[in-house]
Amino acid sequence: MKKTLLIVTLAVGVAACNTKSKPDDQTAGAVKYADTVGFADFQRWKMLNELKESEAYYNQQQQAAAPAARRTTTSKSSAGTAAPVASNSTATKKKGWSKAAKGAVIGTATGAATGAIVNKKNRAAGGVIGGVVGAGVGYLIGRDMDKKDGRY
Questions:
Q1: Three-class SS string for 95-117?
Q2: What is the four-CA torsion angle of 8, 10, 13, 15, rounded to 10 degrees?
Q3: Structure confidence at residue 26 as a pLDDT band (50, 70, 90)
């Protein structure tokens, strides 16, 4: 009898919670305000100016992307004769940390913290094991992201 009463009470409670009427989406947004400060006009003006600036920036980038001039320098070989060496005047930009390296660092920190929290008896061992496992998992995830980006 107690189980039946409990089941009926729970069923009534769930049914009562789910029968709440939802307001219509049309009535919720029915209140409209007049544009008294000219915000809509400002947004249109801003969009036009941003469009002009983006076109100017694009044109500037296209002009800068023109082939760079190559310069030649001479270097002495072991025989003492000068040989021309071609070099590109634009240096390649470093890409910074790969996602694999970032993933390994984040995984190490997260794994060490988690391992220390989980292993209550020997927190140092838990932190070391968690850091190693976290570094491996973070590296694998970051490496996969690098492959998708075309870095490797």
A1: CCCCHHHHHHHHHHHHHHHHHHH
A2: -70
A3: low
Domain residue ranges of the chain, discontinuous segments joined by + = 99-149
Contact by Cβ (8 Å): 73, 87: yes
Distance of alpha carbon 151 from alpha carbon 103, whole angstroms: 15
Q: In angstroms, what is the C-alpha Rg of the chain?
A: 33
Segment 129-150, tens digit of pLDDT: 999 999 999 999 999 999 998 8
Q: Six-digit token pair at 17?
A: 């919670």
Over the stretch 77-92, which tens digit does the pLDDT of each residue have? 555 555 555 555 455 5
Q: Tell me how far apart the alpha carbons of residues 139 and 141 are, in angstroms, rounded to a whole number.
A: 5
CA distance 76 to 98: 37
pTM of the predicted structure, to 2 decimals? 0.39
Q: Is 114 exposed, middle or buried (0-12, 13-18, 19+ CB in 10 A)?
A: middle
DSSP H or E stretch at residue 75: strand 70-76
